[in-house]
Design a protein that fits this description.
Strand content: 25-35%
Radius of gyration: 23 Å
Order of helices and strands: EEHEEEH
Distance between the termini: 40 Å
Number of helices: 2
Number of strands: 5
Strand order of the largest sheet: 2-1-5-3-4
Helix content: 10-25%
Largest sheet: 5 strands, mixed
Length: about 140
Amino acid sequence: MPPKGPPKIYQILIRSHKLTVFLTRTPTSTIKELKEDAQSALSSDVVSEKDVPAAKFEVCQLVSRKGSSEYRLLNDSMQIKDCGIGSWEILYLRFYDPDTGELQDVEFTPLPTFDGEEPDSQPESSSSKGKRKASAIDETS
């Protein structure tokens, strides 16, 4: 079987505050086109100003190195395939402060994790070694 090539379509998730925007783009799409799509989604009727500020923004990528995380700004003229972005990758928005014009830190609400919770029910151990009782559906077949 030949090796798998790069994807022809990228699913990109863009996060900011309490919002995630899902975009579908080609590998040759530019970051500027991603920003335009994100701006269109942010300015739609379903998003309120309290969810996301109505300000200029930059798109950035999370880069983790040896336990620390930083966000790398992506150049508007670069293509998705040249930025090292993979399909289903999460990108983040950094907004400019409307008063000072300075670029603010990335702000988003992390998705909840359920690591600390106990599962509702433990799987029952059975000594039947893969055998099960026939159900009413099985008996009629």
